[in-house]
Automatic annotation (TrEMBL):
<dbReference type="InterPro" id="IPR047581">
    <property type="entry name" value="EcSI_cupin"/>
</dbReference>
<dbReference type="InterPro" id="IPR010864">
    <property type="entry name" value="D-lyxose_isomer"/>
</dbReference>
<protein>
    <recommendedName>
        <fullName>D-lyxose ketol-isomerase</fullName>
        <ecNumber>5.3.1.15</ecNumber>
    </recommendedName>
</protein>
<keyword id="KW-0119">Carbohydrate metabolism</keyword>
<dbReference type="GO" id="GO:0016853">
    <property type="term" value="F:isomerase activity"/>
</dbReference>
<dbReference type="InterPro" id="IPR014710">
    <property type="entry name" value="RmlC-like_jellyroll"/>
</dbReference>
<keyword id="KW-0413">Isomerase</keyword>
<keyword id="KW-0479">Metal-binding</keyword>
<comment type="similarity">
    <text>Belongs to the D-lyxose ketol-isomerase family.</text>
</comment>
<keyword id="KW-0464">Manganese</keyword>
<dbReference type="Pfam" id="PF07385">
    <property type="entry name" value="Lyx_isomer"/>
</dbReference>
Length: 228
């Protein structure tokens, strides 16, 4: 992805989020220079990879296969393993109309996916094979706003604003905005996007960046090179 495209997506996403009365935290608006100048204060922010995350999954067509994310807070895997402390995470996502977030599951993370506003959120679901791999013949069970719902293999569930689904680590899922763009909330156990995504098809989690202009704000995938 071109850095200019990423900068434009950030501005567009911020306006979309604000249209629902939600404002990102102050660190979202720091420039790269401000982050560098405050480096001594932000170890936990960097460790938790909190901040902007825009991906085309390495495929070069963000509008068809992509996702906007912003990690608002994130706990520690060590706390999750101990079962005490900050064991949770929270994100905002934007799924554009017909923009696919590809079929995947998580190894550890359980998550509530919430339609916070906009159009309809569509989620395609499969269960897992006994070894956890993708199984096109496997259905399963999810909770929709606390109510048990059984799904058949490949069933597409839809969620209006205010509705949600709870996905457990073995639930394979892909999602997109139906009829328009959707603001999505994600409340989960500790999030680790570097190791906890298992994609059905060989695909990258983060975008390769063409630095055609300076970044407005850093992506979480920039932290290692810009803030080391």
């Amino acid at each position: 992805m071109k850095r200019s495209e990423i900068n434009a997506i950030m501005a567009e996403a911020d306006a979309f989020i604000r249209s629902f009365g939600f404002v990102l935290p102050p660190f979202a608006y720091w420039t790269p220079e401000e982050m560098k100048s405050r480096r001594a204060e932000i170890d936990r922010l960097i460790e938790g990879r909190m901040g902007w995350d825009i991906t085309d999954f390495g495929q070069g067509d963000f509008d068809k296969l992509g996702l906007f994310l912003f990690t608002l807070r994130n706990g520690r895997l060590d706390d999750l393993k101990r079962g005490t402390g900050m064991c949770y995470a929270e994100k905002l996502l934007i799924s554009k109309q017909d923009q696919i977030s590809p079929m995947h599951r998580h190894y550890l993370k359980a998550e509530d996916i919430i339609n916070r506003g906009g159009a309809t959120l569509a989620i395609e679901l499969y269960g897992s094979a006994p070894d956890g791999s993708f199984d096109e013949s496997a259905g399963g069970t999810v909770l929709c706003d606390g109510i048990t719902r059984h799904f058949t293999p490949g069933e597409i569930l839809t969620f209006a604003p205010g509705e949600s689904v709870t996905l457990m680590p073995g639930d394979w899922h892909a999602f997109w905005g139906e009829g328009g763009d959707v603001l999505i909330g994600e409340v989960s156990t500790v999030n680790d996007d570097e190791t906890d995504n298992w994609f059905r098809d060989p695909i990258g989690r983060f975008a390769a960046i063409d630095e055609d202009e300076a970044p407005t704000h850093l992506l979480v995938s920039d932290y290692a090179s810009w803030l080391s």
